[in-house]
Amino acid sequence: MPVARANPTLSTTLRQQVYERLRGAIEQGSLRAGTRLPPSREHAAALGVSRNTVLWAVQRLQAEGYVEARVGDGTYVSQAAGGATRTQQLVAPPRGLSRRGQLIADTAARWNPPVAMARAFRMGAPEVDTFPYAVWDRLARQAGPGQRAARAQYLDPAGDPQLREAVAQWLWASRGIRCDAGQVVVCSGSQQAIDLIARLLLDVDDEVLVEDPGYPGIRAALLGHGVRARPMAMDGEGACIAEATERWPGAHMAVVTPTHQYPTGVRMGLARRQALLQWARTHDAWVVEDDYDGEFQYGAQRVPALCSLPGSERVLYVGTFSKTLHPGLRLGFIVAPPALVQPFAMARAITDRHAPGDAQAVLAQFIAEGHLLRHLRQMRELYQARQQALRDALADASDGALQLAASDRGMHLLLERAPGSDDETLCRQAQAAGVMLAPLSRYAMESERRGWLFGYAGFGVVEVTAAARIVGQLARRLPRT
Fold it and tell me: Long-range contacts of range 106-109, CB-CB < 8 Å, 24 or more positions apart?
Protein backbone atom coordinates (compact mmCIF):
# COMPACT_ATOMS: atom_id res chain seq x y z
CA MET A 1 0.00 0.00 0.00
CA PRO A 2 1.64 3.31 -1.03
CA VAL A 3 0.07 5.38 1.76
CA ALA A 4 2.27 5.79 4.86
CA ARG A 5 1.05 5.03 8.33
CA ALA A 6 -0.85 7.82 10.10
CA ASN A 7 1.10 9.84 12.65
CA PRO A 8 -0.84 10.29 15.92
CA THR A 9 1.52 13.13 17.04
CA LEU A 10 0.39 15.52 14.27
CA SER A 11 -2.10 18.29 15.13
CA THR A 12 -4.54 17.26 12.38
CA THR A 13 -6.97 14.45 13.15
CA LEU A 14 -6.07 10.92 12.12
CA ARG A 15 -8.99 10.68 9.73
CA GLN A 16 -7.92 13.95 8.07
CA GLN A 17 -4.38 12.56 7.70
CA VAL A 18 -5.68 9.38 6.07
CA TYR A 19 -7.91 11.36 3.72
CA GLU A 20 -5.12 13.75 2.68
CA ARG A 21 -2.63 10.95 2.02
CA LEU A 22 -5.08 8.92 -0.01
CA ARG A 23 -6.07 11.95 -2.04
CA GLY A 24 -2.40 12.89 -2.55
CA ALA A 25 -1.59 9.38 -3.75
CA ILE A 26 -4.44 9.58 -6.30
CA GLU A 27 -3.49 13.05 -7.53
CA GLN A 28 0.19 12.17 -7.85
CA GLY A 29 -0.57 8.99 -9.75
CA SER A 30 0.62 6.52 -7.13
CA LEU A 31 -2.93 5.17 -7.05
CA ARG A 32 -3.98 5.08 -10.69
CA ALA A 33 -7.50 5.04 -12.11
CA GLY A 34 -9.10 1.62 -11.64
CA THR A 35 -6.89 0.67 -8.67
CA ARG A 36 -8.83 -1.23 -6.02
CA LEU A 37 -8.44 0.02 -2.44
CA PRO A 38 -7.83 -2.62 0.25
CA PRO A 39 -10.82 -3.71 2.37
CA SER A 40 -11.40 -1.23 5.18
CA ARG A 41 -10.33 -3.62 7.96
CA GLU A 42 -7.03 -4.50 6.26
CA HIS A 43 -6.48 -0.90 5.32
CA ALA A 44 -7.01 0.24 8.93
CA ALA A 45 -4.60 -2.38 10.26
CA ALA A 46 -1.95 -1.38 7.73
CA LEU A 47 -2.25 2.28 8.65
CA GLY A 48 -2.49 1.73 12.39
CA VAL A 49 -5.88 3.43 12.77
CA SER A 50 -9.45 2.36 13.49
CA ARG A 51 -11.72 1.08 10.75
CA ASN A 52 -14.09 4.06 11.28
CA THR A 53 -11.20 6.41 10.52
CA VAL A 54 -10.61 4.73 7.15
CA LEU A 55 -14.33 4.61 6.37
CA TRP A 56 -14.64 8.37 7.00
CA ALA A 57 -11.72 9.16 4.69
CA VAL A 58 -12.99 6.88 1.91
CA GLN A 59 -16.53 8.22 2.15
CA ARG A 60 -15.21 11.78 1.76
CA LEU A 61 -13.14 10.78 -1.26
CA GLN A 62 -16.21 9.13 -2.74
CA ALA A 63 -18.27 12.29 -2.20
CA GLU A 64 -15.59 14.31 -4.00
CA GLY A 65 -15.44 11.88 -6.92
CA TYR A 66 -11.96 10.48 -6.30
CA VAL A 67 -13.18 6.92 -5.65
CA GLU A 68 -16.27 4.94 -6.49
CA ALA A 69 -17.86 1.99 -4.69
CA ARG A 70 -18.90 -1.08 -6.71
CA VAL A 71 -21.55 -3.14 -4.95
CA GLY A 72 -20.16 -6.49 -3.90
CA ASP A 73 -16.75 -5.73 -5.42
CA GLY A 74 -15.05 -3.04 -3.32
CA THR A 75 -13.89 0.55 -3.78
CA TYR A 76 -11.83 1.73 -6.77
CA VAL A 77 -10.04 4.92 -7.83
CA SER A 78 -12.44 6.53 -10.27
CA GLN A 79 -11.65 6.92 -13.94
CA ALA A 80 -12.43 10.65 -13.73
CA ALA A 81 -9.84 11.20 -10.99
CA GLY A 82 -7.20 9.23 -12.81
CA GLY A 83 -7.96 10.89 -16.12
CA ALA A 84 -7.78 14.34 -14.58
CA THR A 85 -4.45 13.50 -12.99
CA ARG A 86 -2.91 12.29 -16.28
CA THR A 87 -4.21 15.37 -18.10
CA GLN A 88 -2.82 17.73 -15.48
CA GLN A 89 0.60 16.15 -15.84
CA LEU A 90 0.66 16.96 -19.57
CA VAL A 91 -0.75 20.49 -19.47
CA ALA A 92 1.69 23.41 -19.33
CA PRO A 93 1.63 25.53 -16.19
CA PRO A 94 -0.88 28.39 -16.12
CA ARG A 95 0.20 31.54 -17.92
CA GLY A 96 1.52 34.40 -15.83
CA LEU A 97 0.03 37.78 -15.10
CA SER A 98 -1.45 39.88 -17.86
CA ARG A 99 0.29 43.14 -18.74
CA ARG A 100 -2.24 45.00 -16.64
CA GLY A 101 -1.81 42.50 -13.82
CA GLN A 102 1.96 42.91 -13.95
CA LEU A 103 1.59 46.69 -13.71
CA ILE A 104 -0.47 46.22 -10.56
CA ALA A 105 1.98 43.69 -9.11
CA ASP A 106 4.92 45.99 -9.85
CA THR A 107 3.45 48.69 -7.61
CA ALA A 108 4.68 46.68 -4.63
CA ALA A 109 8.15 47.99 -5.43
CA ARG A 110 6.88 51.56 -5.07
CA TRP A 111 4.24 51.31 -2.37
CA ASN A 112 3.99 48.69 0.33
CA PRO A 113 1.33 49.76 2.85
CA PRO A 114 2.14 48.58 6.38
CA VAL A 115 -0.06 45.91 7.91
CA ALA A 116 1.55 45.71 11.34
CA MET A 117 -0.07 47.31 14.37
CA ALA A 118 0.45 51.07 14.26
CA ARG A 119 2.95 52.58 16.65
CA ALA A 120 4.60 55.97 16.94
CA PHE A 121 5.34 57.73 14.61
CA ARG A 122 3.42 55.98 11.86
CA MET A 123 1.88 58.33 9.31
CA GLY A 124 -1.87 58.53 8.82
CA ALA A 125 -2.87 56.59 11.93
CA PRO A 126 -5.83 58.22 13.75
CA GLU A 127 -6.83 57.79 17.37
CA VAL A 128 -8.92 54.62 17.65
CA ASP A 129 -8.90 53.75 21.36
CA THR A 130 -11.28 56.55 22.29
CA PHE A 131 -13.66 56.12 19.36
CA PRO A 132 -17.26 56.09 20.72
CA TYR A 133 -17.81 52.38 20.13
CA ALA A 134 -20.65 52.27 22.65
CA VAL A 135 -22.56 54.93 20.71
CA TRP A 136 -21.92 53.11 17.45
CA ASP A 137 -23.12 49.80 18.91
CA ARG A 138 -26.24 51.44 20.35
CA LEU A 139 -27.15 52.90 16.96
CA ALA A 140 -26.62 49.50 15.35
CA ARG A 141 -28.94 47.83 17.88
CA GLN A 142 -31.72 50.30 17.20
CA ALA A 143 -32.44 48.77 13.80
CA GLY A 144 -35.65 46.75 13.73
CA PRO A 145 -36.05 43.37 12.01
CA GLY A 146 -37.40 45.00 8.86
CA GLN A 147 -34.47 47.42 8.64
CA ARG A 148 -31.97 44.62 9.18
CA ALA A 149 -33.60 42.55 6.45
CA ALA A 150 -33.53 45.51 4.06
CA ARG A 151 -29.84 46.14 4.74
CA ALA A 152 -29.06 42.48 4.10
CA GLN A 153 -30.25 42.76 0.48
CA TYR A 154 -28.26 43.84 -2.55
CA LEU A 155 -28.09 47.63 -2.33
CA ASP A 156 -27.53 50.67 -4.53
CA PRO A 157 -23.84 50.63 -5.55
CA ALA A 158 -23.78 54.45 -5.28
CA GLY A 159 -24.49 54.12 -1.57
CA ASP A 160 -27.22 54.23 1.03
CA PRO A 161 -29.51 57.22 0.23
CA GLN A 162 -29.53 58.41 3.83
CA LEU A 163 -25.74 58.26 4.03
CA ARG A 164 -25.37 60.18 0.78
CA GLU A 165 -27.74 62.84 2.10
CA ALA A 166 -25.87 63.03 5.42
CA VAL A 167 -22.52 63.38 3.65
CA ALA A 168 -23.81 66.15 1.38
CA GLN A 169 -25.15 68.12 4.34
CA TRP A 170 -21.96 67.56 6.31
CA LEU A 171 -19.77 68.78 3.45
CA TRP A 172 -21.74 72.03 3.19
CA ALA A 173 -21.49 72.69 6.93
CA SER A 174 -17.87 71.60 7.40
CA ARG A 175 -16.02 72.09 4.10
CA GLY A 176 -18.13 74.69 2.30
CA ILE A 177 -19.01 72.33 -0.55
CA ARG A 178 -22.45 72.72 -2.13
CA CYS A 179 -23.44 69.41 -3.67
CA ASP A 180 -26.54 67.33 -4.08
CA ALA A 181 -26.81 63.97 -2.35
CA GLY A 182 -27.09 62.44 -5.81
CA GLN A 183 -23.50 63.51 -6.54
CA VAL A 184 -22.10 61.44 -3.67
CA VAL A 185 -20.81 57.95 -4.50
CA VAL A 186 -19.89 55.85 -1.46
CA CYS A 187 -16.74 53.75 -1.78
CA SER A 188 -14.25 51.86 0.39
CA GLY A 189 -12.00 54.73 1.34
CA SER A 190 -9.93 57.16 -0.71
CA GLN A 191 -7.72 54.46 -2.21
CA GLN A 192 -10.66 52.85 -4.00
CA ALA A 193 -11.85 56.30 -5.01
CA ILE A 194 -8.56 57.03 -6.79
CA ASP A 195 -8.68 53.62 -8.44
CA LEU A 196 -12.22 54.21 -9.73
CA ILE A 197 -11.26 57.64 -11.05
CA ALA A 198 -8.25 56.23 -12.89
CA ARG A 199 -10.32 53.43 -14.43
CA LEU A 200 -13.12 55.68 -15.62
CA LEU A 201 -11.37 58.88 -16.67
CA LEU A 202 -7.93 57.81 -17.88
CA ASP A 203 -6.48 55.61 -20.60
CA VAL A 204 -3.16 53.78 -20.79
CA ASP A 205 -0.27 56.23 -21.30
CA ASP A 206 -2.33 59.26 -20.23
CA GLU A 207 -0.34 61.73 -18.17
CA VAL A 208 -1.40 62.83 -14.69
CA LEU A 209 0.23 65.51 -12.55
CA VAL A 210 0.99 64.36 -9.02
CA GLU A 211 2.63 66.14 -6.12
CA ASP A 212 6.35 65.56 -5.54
CA PRO A 213 6.88 64.66 -2.76
CA GLY A 214 3.46 63.07 -2.56
CA TYR A 215 1.47 60.07 -1.41
CA PRO A 216 2.83 56.84 -2.97
CA GLY A 217 -0.60 55.18 -2.83
CA ILE A 218 -1.90 57.66 -5.41
CA ARG A 219 0.97 56.96 -7.78
CA ALA A 220 0.53 53.21 -7.27
CA ALA A 221 -3.14 53.38 -8.26
CA LEU A 222 -2.33 55.37 -11.40
CA LEU A 223 0.63 53.25 -12.45
CA GLY A 224 -1.44 50.11 -11.97
CA HIS A 225 -3.66 51.34 -14.81
CA GLY A 226 -0.75 52.13 -17.13
CA VAL A 227 -1.06 55.87 -16.48
CA ARG A 228 2.07 58.03 -16.47
CA ALA A 229 2.47 59.93 -13.18
CA ARG A 230 4.27 63.23 -13.81
CA PRO A 231 5.82 65.13 -10.87
CA MET A 232 4.74 68.59 -9.70
CA ALA A 233 7.32 70.22 -7.45
CA MET A 234 6.17 71.71 -4.13
CA ASP A 235 7.03 75.06 -2.57
CA GLY A 236 5.60 77.21 0.22
CA GLU A 237 2.37 77.83 -1.71
CA GLY A 238 1.74 74.20 -2.63
CA ALA A 239 2.01 72.51 -6.00
CA CYS A 240 3.90 74.51 -8.65
CA ILE A 241 1.08 74.41 -11.22
CA ALA A 242 2.53 76.70 -13.88
CA GLU A 243 5.86 74.92 -14.11
CA ALA A 244 4.26 71.46 -14.15
CA THR A 245 1.68 72.26 -16.83
CA GLU A 246 4.36 73.84 -19.01
CA ARG A 247 6.58 70.79 -18.60
CA TRP A 248 3.74 68.31 -19.16
CA PRO A 249 1.35 70.05 -21.60
CA GLY A 250 -0.47 66.82 -22.44
CA ALA A 251 -1.59 66.06 -18.88
CA HIS A 252 -5.28 65.12 -18.53
CA MET A 253 -5.55 65.28 -14.74
CA ALA A 254 -3.94 66.64 -11.57
CA VAL A 255 -4.24 64.96 -8.16
CA VAL A 256 -3.67 67.33 -5.24
CA THR A 257 -3.99 67.56 -1.45
CA PRO A 258 -4.55 71.34 -1.22
CA THR A 259 -5.77 71.74 2.37
CA HIS A 260 -2.81 69.96 3.98
CA GLN A 261 -0.33 68.67 1.43
CA TYR A 262 0.77 65.12 2.03
CA PRO A 263 3.45 64.89 3.29
CA THR A 264 4.99 68.41 3.45
CA GLY A 265 2.02 69.95 5.28
CA VAL A 266 1.79 73.03 3.02
CA ARG A 267 -1.59 74.66 2.39
CA MET A 268 -2.18 75.62 -1.25
CA GLY A 269 -2.66 79.37 -1.60
CA LEU A 270 -5.65 80.95 -3.30
CA ALA A 271 -3.68 82.06 -6.37
CA ARG A 272 -2.46 78.50 -6.95
CA ARG A 273 -5.96 77.12 -6.47
CA GLN A 274 -7.37 79.49 -9.03
CA ALA A 275 -4.56 78.71 -11.47
CA LEU A 276 -5.25 75.01 -11.11
CA LEU A 277 -8.96 75.45 -11.77
CA GLN A 278 -8.23 77.66 -14.77
CA TRP A 279 -5.88 75.04 -16.20
CA ALA A 280 -8.58 72.37 -15.83
CA ARG A 281 -11.16 74.52 -17.63
CA THR A 282 -8.80 75.56 -20.42
CA HIS A 283 -7.47 72.08 -21.13
CA ASP A 284 -10.68 70.14 -20.45
CA ALA A 285 -8.76 68.32 -17.71
CA TRP A 286 -9.75 66.96 -14.31
CA VAL A 287 -8.61 67.90 -10.82
CA VAL A 288 -8.85 65.32 -8.05
CA GLU A 289 -8.95 66.87 -4.57
CA ASP A 290 -7.87 64.36 -1.92
CA ASP A 291 -9.07 65.95 1.32
CA TYR A 292 -7.72 63.16 3.48
CA ASP A 293 -7.45 65.11 6.75
CA GLY A 294 -9.20 68.39 5.94
CA GLU A 295 -11.34 68.10 9.07
CA PHE A 296 -8.28 68.56 11.29
CA GLN A 297 -7.73 72.31 11.14
CA TYR A 298 -7.12 73.74 14.58
CA GLY A 299 -7.31 77.50 14.02
CA ALA A 300 -10.33 79.72 14.54
CA GLN A 301 -10.88 79.96 10.78
CA ARG A 302 -10.82 76.80 8.70
CA VAL A 303 -9.95 76.99 5.02
CA PRO A 304 -12.71 75.48 2.84
CA ALA A 305 -12.11 72.83 0.24
CA LEU A 306 -10.85 73.58 -3.27
CA CYS A 307 -14.11 72.08 -4.50
CA SER A 308 -16.02 74.93 -2.85
CA LEU A 309 -14.52 77.64 -5.07
CA PRO A 310 -16.32 79.08 -8.09
CA GLY A 311 -15.29 77.38 -11.32
CA SER A 312 -14.67 74.00 -9.67
CA GLU A 313 -16.96 72.06 -12.02
CA ARG A 314 -14.08 69.84 -13.11
CA VAL A 315 -13.02 68.92 -9.57
CA LEU A 316 -13.72 65.47 -8.15
CA TYR A 317 -13.67 65.61 -4.37
CA VAL A 318 -12.43 62.53 -2.50
CA GLY A 319 -13.20 62.13 1.20
CA THR A 320 -12.63 59.34 3.67
CA PHE A 321 -13.83 58.32 7.13
CA SER A 322 -10.58 56.43 7.72
CA LYS A 323 -9.07 59.52 9.34
CA THR A 324 -12.14 61.18 10.86
CA LEU A 325 -13.39 57.91 12.43
CA HIS A 326 -11.18 54.87 11.90
CA PRO A 327 -9.69 52.93 8.94
CA GLY A 328 -11.42 49.68 9.88
CA LEU A 329 -14.72 51.22 8.83
CA ARG A 330 -13.62 51.13 5.15
CA LEU A 331 -15.96 53.90 4.02
CA GLY A 332 -15.22 56.95 1.91
CA PHE A 333 -16.84 58.82 -0.93
CA ILE A 334 -16.44 60.72 -4.18
CA VAL A 335 -18.34 63.90 -5.02
CA ALA A 336 -18.65 63.76 -8.81
CA PRO A 337 -20.35 65.87 -11.49
CA PRO A 338 -23.90 64.59 -12.05
CA ALA A 339 -23.08 63.12 -15.48
CA LEU A 340 -20.41 60.88 -13.94
CA VAL A 341 -22.39 59.48 -11.02
CA GLN A 342 -23.96 56.56 -12.88
CA PRO A 343 -20.66 55.42 -14.46
CA PHE A 344 -18.97 55.59 -11.07
CA ALA A 345 -21.80 53.64 -9.46
CA MET A 346 -21.53 50.92 -12.11
CA ALA A 347 -17.75 50.76 -11.69
CA ARG A 348 -18.33 50.31 -7.97
CA ALA A 349 -20.85 47.55 -8.70
CA ILE A 350 -18.34 45.74 -10.90
CA THR A 351 -15.61 46.04 -8.28
CA ASP A 352 -17.38 44.85 -5.13
CA ARG A 353 -21.10 45.55 -5.66
CA HIS A 354 -21.62 47.99 -2.75
CA ALA A 355 -20.51 48.90 0.75
CA PRO A 356 -21.94 46.92 3.71
CA GLY A 357 -25.50 48.05 4.40
CA ASP A 358 -25.27 48.00 8.20
CA ALA A 359 -22.15 50.16 8.31
CA GLN A 360 -23.62 52.69 5.89
CA ALA A 361 -26.90 52.97 7.82
CA VAL A 362 -25.22 53.39 11.20
CA LEU A 363 -22.80 55.98 9.81
CA ALA A 364 -25.70 57.97 8.35
CA GLN A 365 -27.36 58.06 11.76
CA PHE A 366 -24.03 58.78 13.47
CA ILE A 367 -23.64 61.91 11.34
CA ALA A 368 -27.29 62.99 11.51
CA GLU A 369 -27.41 62.83 15.34
CA GLY A 370 -24.29 64.98 15.73
CA HIS A 371 -21.91 62.27 16.93
CA LEU A 372 -19.40 62.93 14.15
CA LEU A 373 -19.28 66.62 15.07
CA ARG A 374 -18.70 65.85 18.75
CA HIS A 375 -16.07 63.23 17.96
CA LEU A 376 -14.12 65.60 15.71
CA ARG A 377 -14.17 68.34 18.31
CA GLN A 378 -12.65 65.94 20.83
CA MET A 379 -10.06 64.72 18.35
CA ARG A 380 -8.97 68.24 17.43
CA GLU A 381 -8.31 69.01 21.09
CA LEU A 382 -6.58 65.68 21.61
CA TYR A 383 -4.39 65.99 18.52
CA GLN A 384 -3.26 69.49 19.44
CA ALA A 385 -2.18 68.23 22.86
CA ARG A 386 -0.32 65.31 21.33
CA GLN A 387 1.40 67.57 18.82
CA GLN A 388 2.66 69.78 21.63
CA ALA A 389 3.83 66.75 23.63
CA LEU A 390 5.76 65.52 20.59
CA ARG A 391 7.43 68.87 20.01
CA ASP A 392 8.46 69.26 23.65
CA ALA A 393 9.70 65.69 24.08
CA LEU A 394 11.68 65.64 20.85
CA ALA A 395 13.42 68.95 21.52
CA ASP A 396 14.28 67.88 25.06
CA ALA A 397 15.51 64.39 24.14
CA SER A 398 17.71 65.67 21.29
CA ASP A 399 19.17 68.61 23.24
CA GLY A 400 17.57 70.94 20.71
CA ALA A 401 18.85 69.14 17.62
CA LEU A 402 15.31 68.30 16.50
CA GLN A 403 13.00 71.31 16.69
CA LEU A 404 9.54 70.78 15.19
CA ALA A 405 7.55 73.84 14.17
CA ALA A 406 3.93 73.94 15.38
CA SER A 407 1.15 73.41 12.85
CA ASP A 408 -2.49 74.49 12.98
CA ARG A 409 -3.63 71.48 10.91
CA GLY A 410 -3.05 67.82 10.16
CA MET A 411 -1.99 64.65 11.92
CA HIS A 412 1.76 64.75 11.39
CA LEU A 413 4.74 67.10 11.40
CA LEU A 414 7.70 67.34 9.04
CA LEU A 415 11.23 68.18 10.13
CA GLU A 416 13.06 69.07 6.94
CA ARG A 417 16.77 68.54 6.33
CA ALA A 418 19.08 69.93 3.68
CA PRO A 419 18.15 68.90 0.11
CA GLY A 420 19.80 65.67 -0.94
CA SER A 421 20.96 64.81 2.57
CA ASP A 422 20.67 61.39 4.19
CA ASP A 423 17.29 60.92 5.85
CA GLU A 424 17.28 57.11 5.74
CA THR A 425 19.89 56.26 8.41
CA LEU A 426 18.01 57.72 11.35
CA CYS A 427 14.83 56.00 10.20
CA ARG A 428 16.55 52.62 10.02
CA GLN A 429 18.02 53.10 13.48
CA ALA A 430 14.63 54.14 14.85
CA GLN A 431 12.97 51.13 13.23
CA ALA A 432 15.48 48.83 14.90
CA ALA A 433 14.56 50.47 18.21
CA GLY A 434 10.82 49.95 17.62
CA VAL A 435 9.87 53.40 16.30
CA MET A 436 8.14 53.90 12.94
CA LEU A 437 9.84 57.02 11.53
CA ALA A 438 9.41 57.74 7.81
CA PRO A 439 11.95 59.61 5.66
CA LEU A 440 10.66 62.33 3.33
CA SER A 441 12.69 60.78 0.50
CA ARG A 442 10.33 57.79 0.54
CA TYR A 443 7.60 60.07 -0.86
CA ALA A 444 9.72 61.74 -3.54
CA MET A 445 9.92 61.15 -7.28
CA GLU A 446 12.44 63.70 -8.55
CA SER A 447 12.44 65.96 -5.51
CA GLU A 448 15.65 66.32 -3.52
CA ARG A 449 13.76 67.43 -0.42
CA ARG A 450 14.70 65.42 2.65
CA GLY A 451 13.56 65.14 6.25
CA TRP A 452 11.63 63.07 8.77
CA LEU A 453 7.88 62.65 9.24
CA PHE A 454 6.31 62.32 12.67
CA GLY A 455 2.74 61.01 12.84
CA TYR A 456 1.35 61.81 16.28
CA ALA A 457 -2.46 61.65 16.07
CA GLY A 458 -2.99 57.98 16.90
CA PHE A 459 -0.62 57.70 19.85
CA GLY A 460 -0.98 58.71 23.48
CA VAL A 461 1.35 61.16 25.21
CA VAL A 462 3.22 58.38 26.99
CA GLU A 463 3.94 56.54 23.74
CA VAL A 464 4.79 59.73 21.88
CA THR A 465 7.19 60.81 24.62
CA ALA A 466 8.90 57.41 24.76
CA ALA A 467 9.33 57.28 20.98
CA ALA A 468 10.58 60.88 20.91
CA ARG A 469 13.15 60.01 23.55
CA ILE A 470 14.50 57.18 21.37
CA VAL A 471 14.67 59.30 18.21
CA GLY A 472 16.10 62.28 20.09
CA GLN A 473 18.93 60.24 21.54
CA LEU A 474 19.72 58.80 18.12
CA ALA A 475 19.66 62.27 16.56
CA ARG A 476 22.32 63.57 18.93
CA ARG A 477 24.87 61.64 16.90
CA LEU A 478 23.85 63.28 13.62
CA PRO A 479 25.69 66.27 12.12
CA ARG A 480 23.72 69.50 12.46
CA THR A 481 22.51 71.16 9.23
Answer: 106/223, 107/220, 107/223, 107/224
